[in-house]
Specification:
Layout lengths: L17 E7 L2 E7 L2 H10 L11 E7 L2 E7 L1 H13 L1 H12 L1
Antiparallel strand pairs: 1-2, 1-3, 3-4
Helix pairs in contact: 1-3, 2-3
């Protein structure tokens, strides 16, 4: 019998998704995306996005169990949320700063 070549198929594991959790004004947002910029973009487009910030903002982000946390005062959070809601470049800048 002639031998046939079997094709080897590489199985790639799906990359773990970025997790983003935001607590602001007694509202909790939880989301996942392929990277931090996409997760932030989904947060801006969600109905949970706050148009006014009155309390501290707690952001947890990361991959898997490797979560980091960032806290913003209300005045800083207002500026950040205002900028990321209108400018895509602000999303890029914030995602780079958080990812450092």
């Amino acid at each position: 019998m002639p031998k046939t070549k079997e094709k080897s198929v590489k199985v790639t594991k799906p990359r773990p998704a970025y997790t983003l959790e935001v607590s602001v004004n007694d509202t909790e947002y939880k989301g996942k995306a392929k990277d931090l910029r996409s997760a932030l973009s989904n947060f801006v487009k969600s109905p949970d996005f706050p148009f006014s910030v009155k309390t501290r903002v707690f952001i947890k982000f990361g991959v898997g169990k490797d979560l980091r946390q960032k806290t913003y005062s209300p005045s800083i959070a207002r500026k950040i949320f205002n900028r990321i809601s209108f400018r895509d470049t602000a999303l890029d800048i914030l995602s780079r700063k958080l990812d450092q």
